[in-house]
Each structure stands twice: as C-alpha cells, then as structure tokens.
Automatic annotation (TrEMBL):
Family: Belongs to the BUD31 (G10) family.
Keywords: Coiled coil, Nucleus
Natural source organism: Hepatospora eriocheir
InterPro entries: BUD31
Protein's gene: BUD31
Cellular component aspect of the GO annotation: spliceosomal complex
Predominant location category: nucleus
Subcellular location: Nucleus
Parts forming coiled coils: 12-39
Gene Ontology biological-process entries: mRNA splicing, via spliceosome
Protein name as annotated: BUD31
Keyword Nucleus: yes
Length: 130
C-alpha cells in the first residue's frame, strides 16, 4: 500500500490539473484531444497497475472509479484478452464511418513495420503500442 494516501491523491491531482489546462486551450483542438486521451489513459493505467500490484487498496481504487477519476470502461476493456494495450475507448466504438477499421493499438507491432503509410491514430494519436 502507498505509505501515504497523499501520494496517490497528488498523482491524480497533478494529472487532473494538466487535463484542465488542456480544456482551457483553444489552439489546436484535435491535438489537445489526443493529449487528453493520452493523459487519461496514462492515469487510468497507472492506477490499475498499482491496484493489481497491491499498492493501493480496493476501497481507494473503487472510490477513484466511482468519482470518475479513472476510466472504468477502459479498465473493463483491458481485462478482455487482446485489449490489454488499448489506448482509448474511442478506438473501439463502432460507427458507420469506421466500419471494418481497427485502431493501430490493436495491431501487433511486428505487423506495423509492413505498413509504411501509417503515422498515427486519428483519434488518440497512438503510433502503435501492441
């Protein structure tokens, strides 16, 4: 367990401050959205790893989920085989324009080397993390 609950709260508060500052900017909305998704994933993944490693209590973990401080939906997807490295929920939402497409974070890195034209996911900015 964390020696001080303040360490966990400080981590969450620091990320939340960064997220709030991004929401206030209006320069490049698309890039800011990618950064928001990246920070949300980072925060959620770190807390999920700490919980699985026994560094935070179940009550603290559930409290963060209930207060929407971390993404419950993303964590639920990570528990499904093949989705452990998913970058954001947006990348798996099915809609008409994205039919039969998959985000780069779902493609194994050895297959990415064959795709020369790809740069990054349009939604989350992932460049391939599988």
């Amino acid at each position: 367990m964390f020696q001080k609950k303040n360490e966990l709260n400080k981590f969450i508060d620091d990320i939340d401050k960064e997220l709030k500052s991004l929401l206030c900017r209006k320069e490049n909305v698309r890039e800011e959205l990618k950064e928001i998704l990246r920070l949300t994933t980072f925060k959620t993944k770190r807390v999920f790893q700490w919980y699985n490693g026994g560094f935070i209590s179940e009550s603290d973990y559930k409290k963060l989920i209930n207060e929407n401080k971390i993404s419950k939906d993303l964590i639920n997807q990570w528990k499904i085989n093949g989705y452990q490295k998913l970058c954001c929920i947006r990348c798996i939402i099915n809609n008409k324009e994205d039919k039969d497409k998959v985000c780069i974070c779902r493609i194994p890195s050895e297959c990415l080397k064959k795709i020369e034209s790809f740069t990054e996911c349009n939604y989350c900015g992932c460049r391939g993390c599988s």
